[in-house]
Amino acid sequence: MAGIKQFNEDEALERAMHVFWRQGYGATSMPDLAKATGVQRGSLYHAYGDKQSIFLLAFARYQRHYLDMVRERMQLADPESALRAYFAYVINSMSEPVPQLDDTPSSRTRGCLTTKIATDETAMDEPVRNALRGMLEGLGEVLEARLSQPDARERLTLSPQDAARLLVTFTRGNVVMERIYHGPQQLQATADSMIQILFKRC
């Protein structure tokens, strides 16, 4: 692809990600991506091949950033504080307004990109499914690594692996609740209840 791309790839993938986030996978077309990125459709085809390839690159970029943010929060000294910070990040992320092409404010929250694609039947080709699995498994590994540390392990009511799996699944459920109620405070309160369940009390 050397000599073909005449655009800022990082910026183009960021804009493409927001189109998928706003419209879903099936409703997004190559003309939509061309308009959002400001890159001619032919140049997108030459650079990436097709819509799925663009999505996979945009999603991989999103995944790296998301997991980096979770790792940052897992560095907090207290495991319960780390999980609260993790949930606060997740809730804040999905409660942000949907990015618009013209930068006008939106009353809609953007929800969770991973869950939005996972519930889109038109997106369920194996490469996309593998990307989604990689995201959820990567999140589980980050959480399990923190919960495996002695200060957390000795207080958990479950094994670190089971606790991490439960947290990933619980987060997906919280995404659905956000879609219905749009209540960050309620979501955080429910997350706090989950944390209380996971840790033994003196």
Automatic annotation (TrEMBL):
<keyword id="KW-0805">Transcription regulation</keyword>
<protein>
    <submittedName>
        <fullName>TetR family transcriptional regulator</fullName>
    </submittedName>
</protein>
<dbReference type="Pfam" id="PF00440">
    <property type="entry name" value="TetR_N"/>
</dbReference>
<dbReference type="InterPro" id="IPR009057">
    <property type="entry name" value="Homeodomain-like_sf"/>
</dbReference>
<dbReference type="InterPro" id="IPR001647">
    <property type="entry name" value="HTH_TetR"/>
</dbReference>
<keyword id="KW-0238">DNA-binding</keyword>
<feature type="DNA-binding region" description="H-T-H motif">
    <location>
        <begin position="29"/>
        <end position="48"/>
    </location>
</feature>
<feature type="domain" description="HTH tetR-type">
    <location>
        <begin position="6"/>
        <end position="66"/>
    </location>
</feature>
<keyword id="KW-0804">Transcription</keyword>
<dbReference type="InterPro" id="IPR036271">
    <property type="entry name" value="Tet_transcr_reg_TetR-rel_C_sf"/>
</dbReference>
